[in-house]
Design a protein that fits this description.
The structure holds 3 protein chains of 3 kinds.
Chain A (H helix, E strand, L loop, with lengths): L14 E5 L11 E7 L2 E8 L7 H5 L7 H6 L6 H16 L5 H30 L2 H22 L21 H22 L4 H7 L7 H7 L3 H5 L7 H4 L20 H24 L19 E9 L2 E9 L8 E5 L1 H7 L1 H5 L4 H11 L3 H5 L1
Antiparallel strand pairs in A: 1-2, 2-3, 4-5, 5-6
Helix pairs in contact in A: 3-4, 4-5, 4-11, 4-14, 5-6, 6-11
Chain B lengths: L1 H22 L3 H21 L3 H26 L22 H11 L6 H5 L1 H8 L4 H12 L3 H22 L5
Chain C lengths: L1 H36 L15 H11 L10 H17 L9 E4 L2 E4 L8 H9 L2 H11 L3 H32 L4 H11 L3 H4 L1 H14 L11 H4 L9 H26 L21 H22 L5 H29 L1
Antiparallel strand pairs in C: 1-2
Helix pairs in contact in C: 1-2, 1-11, 1-12, 2-11, 3-5, 3-11, 5-6, 6-9, 6-13, 9-11, 9-13, 11-12
Chain lengths: 374, 175, 339
């Protein structure tokens, strides 16, 4: 990018600014080395790995059922989605049939998790752009979901909420009613967020036309989830390759038109509503029955390998697992982390924008460093 | 009596700061002394009963023009190395650096570009970056090697700042 | 002797203390108001409803380690908080909190002094505050403060133009630069100037937000972008000085807005006889009440709006506010000549 011109009198070169790993807006320990021309980003190096714990390797040395709680620690703001993804992968490997009731509850958990994660995203994203009140409002609602999860499985962050072949627990009595109440509360609170942001002039100026990426390029970049859908690509694992009980519910996949930060914001806001819709349907039609399928006591999948993906709040989280059929742990374990894939696009997105847009864009692709670094 | 005392104290301070302006080595400090000087002169005006003049003195000179000076000085002042970490126990400062003169020569062989606002301040570069006193030369080259972050940034913002400040300075004159 | 020395000195001491206490409580007020907006409680631990929080904060800040970064310009680094703080305080010298009142059988004006160039004095002193910000960013010898101090100084300087333009139209209205004179002329007009000059009022308010680096123009100290801004490298009491100066500036802008546009110490509709029962409230209470309303709006805006971006801020200043302000001056001038 450096332009070789006749040397000007005030010899200018780019200012290298180190953003992170200790920076309030990098959502964890992300480090971005920005090269600035004034305040405009000429280029950026994105440095990851500060939170690397070797989870994938760790998983190769754990029992199949012990791995579930390691998946909690990847996307720690959407632990249930990772649990679900992993368990479904193993079930696919073992060809286990999961009872319908468990499928429904899994769907409810997955969608509650999506709302919780999106609440966190909305709060931090708005906070990055300076709207501090939205942050606390969104966390207020997230708290309700955490309460629901706590009542279901006892944990508030790392749920360990599914088991291979089903669920550890049935829902507690009265829980479904509380979930329904929560849906009503959430519906009204969404209006509050929208009042503060959607038509706010400053919000529009800060998000419209920022980090535009069109559909084909987004696909080429490997983006996924709401970040991809913001660019107008209707790719959603829940629709395209239905898992759990998603094929039994009516819902729509919102997509954007411009592919800018504002569209990604709108897409996620609409996903709140669609998730509520799914939860309501699932609660209404919750079937009776067992919550665990026929699973041997010692889990030892047959030799073979499989890839299975679910739609986590961040995007398509996929698990590639190889089993040698002999040992009680996976032979090879690999995660396709949506945050990591979305982070790949960040460099392309922030180039040419201002420093202030960098934080807006980090918020807009919604990453969790626990998942990026694993 | 009281007035005379105040007058002489003020005058002494004004002269003192004036001397500091031209004697201090750090240009930013020099500009700050200049501001002090202007403020004290404004006080002198107040003593003379010319409040309007005093206020205009502060507004135009101290508040407007010298801000411009400050930007210029921050622009050409290369004394602020932000990045090189120097071990305070191993100070290379006192060791004469034979290559320093070479860098000066290199600088001379590549005169900075011309035209625009930059040209207007060329003399400042000549004076500040390449002084003729030998020991000062070594110091400055030492500084030149460790280029500060701010200068680059300022260089690009300079036109903006200049435009802003010119308007700012000329604004009070609309009264 | 008493009138020329003791009374003014006493007033200065009282005012200075009052301002400093007001500033510290301003911090508490901000935390409380924003907490209420965000449906939480805010400080509750120190004293009843957190009323002693400012004292705890002050003790904390004073006992904190005062760090000067290595390779910072020590003198400038130390001086810049002071340079920021002093103009914010000495502006209060010409703010009229009330007219002359009878106090202990003596006629005492409720302002320290009324110089005939009062408004100009405020503008000129306030323009010195920008030094502290530039120098703080520069002397910290760190990149984030530098970026931020450049943002701040560019912002301050450009919004000062718009604000000064509105002041020009106010001077045209009042025909005087004296702060007391401006209030008096509003009494004579029987109307607050905010009703005559709504455009100038709005521009002054927006410019005031920008000049005090308040949301939505708080980008010089946007912690989400620049990790705190030009005072990133400051700690302890020196940091507190920046903090206090910001709040003092907010109070200054509010006082100025009240004096220029909302009739200073005058009651609402000073010419309407039917409302004369409002005169029972002392004039300085009116002044403080109006100032408080202004400060509340400052906080309210902070809790509501996102932040502008640097280029948008500049565009708003130069392409919108300044042309309108200049137009306003021209229109005011023409109206003044014709009427």
């Amino acid at each position: 990018m450096k332009i070789e011109a006749p040397r000007p009198m005030f010899d200018t070169s780019e200012l290298v600014l180190n953003m992170g790993p200790q920076h309030p807006s990098t959502h964890g320990v992300l480090r971005i080395v920005l090269r600035l021309d004034g305040e405009r980003v000429v280029d950026a190096d994105i440095v990851v790995g500060y939170l690397h714990r070797g989870i994938e390797k760790l998983c190769e040395n754990r029992d199949w059922s012990q791995i579930i709680l390691l998946t909690d620690r990847m996307d720690y703001v959407a632990a249930a989605s990772s649990n679900l993804g992993y368990c479904e992968t193993v079930e696919k490997l073992m060809s286990v049939e999961v009872p319908r009731r468990a499928q429904y509850i899994r769907t409810i958990l997955g969608e509650l998790q999506r709302i919780a994660s999106h609440c966190l995203w909305l709060g931090t994203h708005a906070m990055d752009i300076g709207a501090m009140t939205v942050f606390l409002y969104a966390f207020r609602e997230r708290e309700l979901i955490l309460d629901l999860f706590e009542e279901y499985c006892g944990a508030r962050l790392t749920y360990n909420a599914t088991r291979i072949g089903g669920l550890p627990l049935d829902i507690p009595p009265g829980w479904d009613k509380k979930v329904r109440e929560f849906c009503d509360i959430m519906d009204s609170k969404l209006g509050e967020y929208e009042t503060l942001l959607t038509h706010n002039r400053i919000w529009l100026e800060r998000t419209k036309g920022i980090g535009v990426i069109d559909g084909p390029e987004a696909i080429a970049m490997g983006l996924c989830g709401p970040t991809l859908r913001g660019s107008g690509v209707p790719r959603d694992v829940r629709k395209d390759e239905p898992y759990a009980a998603y094929d039994e519910f009516d819902f729509e996949v919102p997509i954007g038109t411009e592919g800018d930060t504002y569209d990604r914001y709108l897409v996620r806001l609409e996903e709140f509503r669609q998730s509520l819709r799914i939860i309501r349907q699932a609660i209404d039609g919750l079937p009776e029955g067992p919550i665990v399928g026929k699973v041997p006591r010692l889990i030892k999948p047959p030799a073979g390998e499989t890839y299975h993906a679910v739609e986590s709040p961040k995007g398509e989280i996929g698990f590639f697992i190889a089993s040698d059929g002999r040992s009680t742990n996976p032979y090879r374990f690999r995660v396709r982390p949506p945050s990591f894939c979305n982070l790949q696009g960040l460099r392309r997105l922030i180039r040419g924008h201002l420093v202030a847009d960098v934080v807006a864009l980090i918020g807009s692709i919604d990453i969790v460093l626990g998942e990026v670094d694993r | 009596m009281g007035e005379a005392v105040i007058f002489y104290v003020l005058s002494a301070l004004i002269l003192g700061f004036a001397v500091l302006v031209i004697s201090t080595r750090n240009t930013v400090h020099s500009v700050l002394f200049l501001v002090m000087n202007f403020l004290l002169v404004a006080m002198l005006y107040v003593m003379l009963g010319a409040e309007f003049l005093a206020v205009i003195q502060v507004l135009v000179y101290a508040g407007g023009i010298v801000v411009l000076y400050l930007f210029v000085v921050m622009l050409v002042n290369l004394k602020r190395p932000p990045e090189v970490h120097q071990d305070p126990y191993i100070s290379g400062r006192n060791v004469p650096q034979p290559w320093a003169a070479l860098v000066v020569e290199e600088e001379n062989r590549h005169p900075r570009g011309s035209g625009g606002i930059g040209q207007a301040f060329h003399f400042l570069q000549d004076d500040v970056v390449r002084p003729t006193v030998p020991h000062a030369r070594i110091l400055d080259i030492d500084d030149h090697q460790r280029r500060p972050a701010g200068i680059d940034y300022l260089g690009q913002r300079f036109a903006d700042i200049l435009a802003v400040d010119v308007l700012h300075v000329s604004c009070p004159s609309l009264f | 002797m008493v009138d020329t020395l003791v009374v003014p000195l006493l007033k200065i001491v009282i005012l200075l203390n009052a301002v400093l206490i007001a500033v510290t409580y301003m911090v508490l007020l901000e935390r409380k108001v924003i907490a209420w907006v965000q449906s939480r409680l805010g400080p509750m631990r120190v004293g009843p409803y957190g009323a002693l929080q400012p004292i705890a904060d002050a003790i904390k800040l004073m006992t904190k380690e005062d760090i000067t970064p290595t390779r910072a310009d020590r003198w400038v680094f130390t001086a810049s908080p002071i340079i920021v703080m002093v103009p914010a305080l000495i502006v209060f010298a010409v703010i009229p909190f009330g007219p002359e009142v009878e106090l202990f059988g003596r006629s005492v004006p409720l302002y320290i002094t009324d110089i005939n160039v009062g408004l100009l004095y405020i503008v000129s002193v306030a323009s010195l505050g920008v030094y502290g910000i530039i120098l703080a960013g520069w002397s910290s010898n760190s990149k984030y403060p530098l970026l931020s101090s450049l943002r701040a100084s560019a912002q301050l300087i450009s919004y000062e133009v718009a604000v000064t333009m509105t002041l020009v139209s106010m001077i045209l209205m009042a025909g005087t630069l004296s702060m007391v004179g401006i209030v008096e002329s509003q009494r004579e007009a029987g109307l607050w100037f905010a009703f005559v000059q709504p455009v100038a009022f709005v521009i002054f308010f927006i410019g005031g937000l920008a000049e005090t680096n308040r949301a939505p123009f708080d980008l010089p100290e946007a912690e989400q972008e620049l990790t705190g801004g030009f005072h990133t490298e400051y700690s302890g009491m020196r940091f507190a000085l920046f903090f206090l100066a910001e709040y003092a500036n907010m109070i200054v802008i509010s006082c100025l807005a009240v004096t220029l546009f909302l009739g200073g110490w005058l009651r609402p509709f000073p010419s309407v006889e039917a409302l004369s029962f409002l005169d029972l409230v002392p004039s300085w209470i009116w002044f403080l009440f109006k100032t408080f309303v202004f400060l509340y709006i400052f906080l309210w805006i902070r809790a509501t709006l996102p932040r502008y971006r640097y280029d948008q801020l500049m565009r708003l200043g130069w392409k919108v506010l300044i042309p309108i302000a200049i137009g306003n001056v021209v229109v005011t001038g023409i109206a003044k000549v014709l009427l």
